[in-house]
Write a structure and sequence with these properties.
The complex is a heterodimer of chains A (about 240) and B (about 250).
Chain A: E1 6-11, H1 19-32, E2 37-42, H2 48-52, E3 57-59, H3 65-75, E4 82-87, H4 92-101, H5 104-110, E5 114-120, H6 125-137, E6 142-148, E7 170-172, H7 177-183, H8 203-238
Parallel strand pairs in A: 1-4, 1-5, 2-3, 2-4, 5-6, 6-7
Chain B: E1 5-10, H1 18-31, E2 36-40, H2 47-51, E3 56-58, H3 64-71, E4 81-85, H4 91-100, H5 103-108, E5 113-119, H6 124-137, E6 141-147, H7 159-166, E7 173-177, H8 182-191, H9 195-199, H10 213-232, H11 235-239, H12 241-250
Parallel strand pairs in B: 1-4, 1-5, 2-3, 2-4, 5-6, 6-7
The chains are: A alpha/beta (about 240), B alpha/beta (about 250).
C-alpha cells in the first residue's frame, strides 16, 4: 500500500486511560508494516513511552517556544515518517491551543500529511466536552473515538458521535489482568515476535497475546485505510 | 477615482513601535490590493525601508524638497495610500508643517483622506501628547494605538487617567496591537522581510525560505489579530471611500 505521511495524536484530557499503551501499539504496528516511525512522548512525568520504546521515542514538550519548534517543525517535515504523539493530559490543552493558533492541521494538509486524533473515550463530562470542542476546533482533522474496553464495556456512542471525516470507532480489546501486567513491564515490545524479554511467557498466554494483538492491529489497519481515503478525497476536493 | 489617503504613524517618544505598526499597515493594504507607498523619515537610514524596500523611500521630512516629494505627488502617484513613518520626536513638528503647507486644510475640505496613528508611549507625558496632537490634527481620523507587541511597554498610567484624555478627543478611536512572541518577532527582524512574507515562508526576493513553522504560525495569528483591529475601525473603507460607494451601488 502506498501510504503518505501521517500523524496520529493519541489524546485525552484525563490521566490513566491507556493513551501510552495505544501509542506503543501504534508505534509497533507501523514498524511491523515496515514504515519509518517516530513517537513523541508529551508526558512530563514518567515518560513511560520513552521507557518502552527508547529507540523510536523523542521526549517532547510544548511548554516553551524551543520545545514547540522542536516538536511541530519536525511534525510537518516531509521525511516520509509516520509520527505518533502520546499526548499527556497535562499538555492536552496547551498542545491543541497552539495547534489551532498556528493552524497545524492546515499546514499538514498542504504538505500532504494526514492527521488523525485518536480520542480515548470515557464517560466523564470533561472528556465529552473536550471531544466536542476538538470537533469544532479542528473540523478538517480526522477525529476518531477510541474505546478502551479495559476501562469497561459501555460504548458511550451517544456521547461521542462519530465525525464525518473519521467515520469509525477504534476498539482496544480487553486483556486478561495477568497479561496486562506482562505488557506493562518495560522493556516490552509488541513488534518483537518473542514479545521482548518475556521468554518465560507460557504458551497459552503467548497465544492469547497474539490473538489480542491481531484484533487491535486489524482496527489500526482499518484506521489506516480511513486515513488514506480521507487523504485521497481531500486531494481530489482541493486539487492538491 | 478614490481620493488619495495619507496615514501618519508617529509618536513624540522613541521605541514605542512606530515602524512595526507602519509595517502591519503596509501588509494590510497589500492584502486588500490597495496600492500603497511609504516614506520613512528616519533619514538617512530608514528601518521601514529594510522591510519594504520596493515601496519605501527614505526622506528628511523637515526638508522642503522632500516634503514636495511626498505631498506634491499625492494625486499623481499610482499608490492611493501613502504611509509615513514619522521619526521619534517629529510628530508635532510634522503636523505643524502640514498645517503650514495647507495640507490639513485640504483634508478638511475632503480632497485628501488623512489619518494619524498616534502610538502611545508608557509615560504620563505620552498622554499629554494626545491633547497637543489632537489640537493640531483637527478633523483628521485620529487613532490612538496601544502597542503591546514586545510587551516591554509598561503603561505607567491607569485606565481612568487614560480615559480622561481619550474622551477629550472627539472621534478618536483606539487600536490595540497585541503581544507577539519574542522569538517570532526577532526572527522576522533577522529575516528583514514583511510580516506576510514571513508567514508565507518567503525570503526578501520572494524566494522560498525555511522559517520555523511554529514561528510563522505565531506571526500569522498575531497579524490576523492586528488586522482584526484595523477591520474594527474600517480602515479599508476609510482609505477607499469611492470603492466602498461603488460596492454599495452594486449591492443596490
Amino acid at each position: 500500500m502506498s501510504f503518505r505521511s501521517s500523524i496520529t495524536i493519541v489524546a485525552s484530557p484525563r490521566p490513566r486511560v491507556g493513551k501510552t499503551l495505544v501509542a506503543r501499539l501504534l508505534t509497533d504496528f507501523h514498524q511491523g508494516e515496515n514504515r519509518k516511525v517516530v513517537s513523541f512522548d508529551l508526558n512530563s512525568g514518567e515518560r513511560t513511552l520513552t521507557q518502552f520504546l527508547p529507540q523510536q521515542t523523542v521526549a517532547a514538550s510544548v511548554r516553551d517556544v524551543n520545545g514547540q519548534m522542536a516538536l511541530f517543525d519536525r511534525l510537518v517535515t516531509d521525511d516520509d515518517t509516520t509520527k505518533i504523539i502520546d499526548l499527556g493530559h497535562e499538555s492536552y490543552e496547551s498542545f491543541f491551543t497552539l495547534a489551532q493558533q498556528i493552524d497545524f492541521i492546515e499546514e499538514a494538509r498542504q504538505r500532504s500529511i494526514a492527521v488523525a486524533i485518536l480520542f480515548m473515550v470515557t464517560p466523564d463530562q470533561t472528556s465529552v466536552t473536550a471531544y466536542r470542542n476538538l470537533r469544532d476546533r479542528f473540523p478538517r482533522a480526522m477525529l476518531v473515538p477510541l474505546h478502551n474496553e479495559m476501562l469497561g464495556s459501555a460504548q458511550y456512542r451517544d456521547k461521542y458521535p462519530i465525525s464525518g471525516s473519521g467515520g469509525l470507532t477504534v476498539k482496544l480489546p480487553a486483556l486478561a489482568p495477568g497479561l496486562r501486567k506482562l505488557i506493562d513491564s518495560p522493556p516490552f515490545s509488541f513488534a518483537n515476535s518473542n514479545m521482548g524479554s518475556a521468554t518465560d511467557v507460557p504458551l497459552d498466554a503467548h497465544i492469547e497475546l497474539q490473538r489480542w494483538l491481531r484484533r487491535i492491529y486489524l482496527e489500526f489497519r482499518e484506521l489506516d485505510l480511513r486515513l488514506l481515503l480521507a487523504d485521497l478525497s481531500s486531494s481530489i476536493r482541493f486539487g492538491s | 477615482m478614490a481620493r488619495p489617503a495619507v496615514i501618519l504613524v508617529g509618536a513624540d517618544k522613541g521605541g514605542v513601535g512606530k515602524t512595526t505598526v507602519a509595517r502591519t499597515l503596509i501588509d494590510y493594504f497589500g492584502a486588500h490590493q490597495t496600492p500603497t507607498r511609504a516614506f520613512d523619515t528616519e533619514w538617512p537610514r530608514g528601518t521601514l525601508k529594510r522591510f519594504h524596500p520596493d515601496l519605501t523611500e527614505v526622506v528628511d521630512v523637515t526638508s522642503v524638497s522632500d516634503q514636495m516629494k511626498i505631498f506634491d505627488t499625492l494625486g499623481s502617484a499610482d499608490a492611493k495610500v501613502t504611509v509615513i513613518d514619522v521619526r521619534a520626536g517629529l510628530l508635532s513638528s510634522t503636523l505643524q508643517a502640514l498645517t503650514e503647507i495647507g495640507f490639513l486644510e485640504s483634508a478638511k475640505k475632503g480632497q485628501i483622506t488623512f489619518a494619524v496613528f498616534h502610538i502611545l508611549g508608557p509615560s504620563i507625558a505620552s498622554l499629554e501628547e494626545i491633547a497637543e496632537t489632537a489640537r493640531v490634527v483637527g478633523d483628521a481620523n485620529y487613532f490612538l494605538v496601544k502597542n503591546f507587541v514586545n510587551n516591554t511597554t509598561f503603561f505607567e498610567w491607569d485606565p481612568a487617567t487614560y480615559n480622561s484624555y481619550f474622551k477629550k478627543i472627539k472621534g478618536a478611536e483606539e487600536i490595540t496591537i497585541p503581544k507577539l512572541n519574542e522569538m517570532a518577532y526577532e526572527q522576522v527582524e533577522v529575516a528583514s522581510v514583511p510580516f506576510v512574507s514571513f508567514v508565507g515562508n518567503k525570503g526578501p526576493k520572494g524566494e522560498a525560505a525555511n522559517y520555523s513553522f511554529v514561528l510563522r504560525g505565531y506571526v500569522r495569528h498575531w497579524l490576523g489579530n492586528v488586522w482584526g483591529e484595523f477591520d474594527k475601525v474600517k480602515l479599508v473603507d476609510l482609505v477607499s471611500p469611492k470603492m466602498e460607494s461603488n460596492v454599495r451601488q452594486v449591492a443596490g
